[in-house]
Amino acid sequence: MRARLMWLCRHRAGTVRAAWRFPRHTALLALFAAGAACAQAPAPAPPSKACAAPVHRQFDFWIGRWDVFLPNGNKAGENVIESIADGCALLESWTGRGGVTGKSLNVHDARDGRWHQTWVDSSGGRLELAGTFGDGRMVLASTVGEIGKPGDRSVQRITWTPNPDGSVRQLWESSDDGGVTYRVAFDGRYVKRKE
Description:
CATH superfamily of the largest domain: Calycin beta-barrel core domain
Structural class: alpha+beta
Largest sheet: 10 strands, antiparallel, barrel
Number of domains: 2
CATH topology of the largest domain: Lipocalin
Distance between the termini: 53 Å
Strand order of the largest sheet: 1-2-3-4-5-6-7-8-9-10
Shape: globular
Number of strands: 10
CATH class of the largest domain: Mainly Beta
Strand content: 35-45%
């Protein structure tokens, strides 16, 4: 009987159409029975909160709709950062002034205790970063030779710092000598978009 009631819940519209072949009171009775059965069906269990621990909220300061500016005040682009997968990850959607678009997926991995970012963009670029949150900022970096030719000593390091005014600074540094010295590749100030 229970299986029949569950079937009625899923196929309620079809049941009502089929019931119109019978006298009108039979159709109303079928509609009432289907509604009552659906009301008695158990609600699905709430999703688990696998990412409820505070460590999963460390990068939440980056969530939002942002205009991104260079140090000279020129607009570099727009970025939308959203929480996805029931709070287990952040999805970045970048649109640069020059037409380059890109996306990143950011997640904390409990196995190694680090944050990981995978970036891809419309120029064919890809970047894999990992790191931690500390001293009020998120620092993610690539490892030597991770991307490039054998013997490549390049390292990428990106630091996100939330500012007291609600803006966020993103400083991207690049090294060609395995992380001994760095040069600035990008310095952006994220300002919440006025909707």
